[in-house]
Design a protein that fits this description.
Belongs to the DNA polymerase HolA subunit family. Helix content is about 60%, strand content about 10%. Helix 10 packs antiparallel against helix 11 and helix 15 runs antiparallel to helix 16.
Length: about 325
């Protein structure tokens, strides 16, 4: 994996793969902007969906001279054939043509292969060739420091400081989806521009809350044995017409994450390793690790059993959905 930054001169072939959608989009746009001015993109940029169009069309296009600029950009989206995916598609690819192109790419073209999947199949000859000949970016994990830097840079564009305390609070309030967080910081920056820093208080006042973050906060109150705080959040969610069965599923998910984090910590895994294994943002693991200090292993096991029993009771009509969730929270707080 190379450094997460595009430099010039541009390489003839790039491979961007991973599950971090924001980074995929950001690096993709960086490459395009380096290669072509905005008014040139309509003439000298083509995008091919590999789920629907054969790769040989893209290769033929890549071998065509630019029309209005010095470079041509050919983008191959959804390159599933770089992974171990064996699902049948309606389109057939002649991958030997792509392999030949990668071995001898056009100097006038920048080809970008996008694979929004967790990993490539490194046993494949084409993947080995790309790793040797192309610039490959793995975009699966975004550390908290990287995320803080992205959001801080966004605020800086408006000459506004983005504090670390605000960052931690924003993750708790709005979740860890990078695109959502960038939009939240844009909004906060416009409000704070020329007047103040983005601090914890401003985030609390203006940041949009997600259902997941509200449930996360409720579970945190449960684990701190704060029944009043947990029921206050639950009441707000009921007023917002949130489905009790969905809330129960999210509560169970959070207890499961905390339980798994506890087990991995006891095996000596570090926060980053646990985040990678559970496919979660490191911040979520950090908070789960702190929650394990409030709720021990045995309490977490009992909590998961209680959640499962409540789920069965609700779905089989043994108890009203809202009453069942309220009784569950009372039991969890008492563990």
């Amino acid at each position: 994996m190379t450094d997460l930054k595009i430099t010039t001169p541009l390489a003839p072939v790039y491979v961007l793969y991973g599950t971090e959608a924001y980074l995929l989009q950001t690096l993709r746009q960086q490459i395009i902007q380096f290669a072509l001015a905005r008014d040139e993109q309509a003439f000298d940029m083509s995008t091919y969906n590999m789920e629907e169009q054969p790769v040989e069309l893209a290769v033929e296009d890549a071998n065509t001279l630019p029309f209005m600029s010095e470079k041509r950009v050919v983008l191959l989206d959804n390159c599933f054939f770089l992974t171990g995916d064996t699902k049948k598609r309606k389109v057939e690819h002649h991958l030997e043509q792509l392999a030949d192109y990668v071995a001898s790419p056009s100097p006038d073209t920048v080809m970008i292969l996008i694979a929004p999947y967790e990993k490539l199949d490194k046993r494949k000859k084409l993947v080995k060739s790309l790793e040797k000949e192309a610039k490959v970016f793995e975009l699966n994990t975004l550390t908290d420091q990287m995320l803080y830097q992205i959001l801080s840079d966004e605020a800086q564009q408006h000459s506004v400081e983005y504090t670390k305390a605000a960052h931690n609070r924003l993750l708790a309030v709005s979740g860890t989806n990078t695109s959502i967080l960038v939009n939240e910081v844009k909004k906060l920056s416009l409000y704070a521009e020329g007047r103040q820093a983005i601090d914890e208080r401003l985030v609390e006042q203006l940041a949009s809350r997600t259902l997941e973050s509200d449930v996360f906060a409720m579970v945190d109150r449960i684990m701190h044995r704060d029944a009043q705080g947990a029921f206050r959040i639950l009441s707000d969610l009921f007023q917002q017409k949130e489905e009790p069965v969905k809330l129960l599923a999210l509560i169970m998910r959070q207890f499961r994450i905390t339980f798994q984090t506890d087990l991995y910590q006891k095996q000596g895994f570090m926060q980053k390793q646990i985040a990678s294994r559970l496919k979660l943002h490191p911040y979520a693991i950090k908070i789960a690790g702190e929650q394990t200090k409030q709720y021990g292993e045995q309490a977490l096991k009992k909590a998961l059993i209680l959640c499962s029993d409540t789920d069965v009771a609700i779905k089989t009509g043994q108890i009203d959905k809202m009453v069942g969730l309220q009784l569950l929270i009372q039991k969890l707080v008492s563990l």
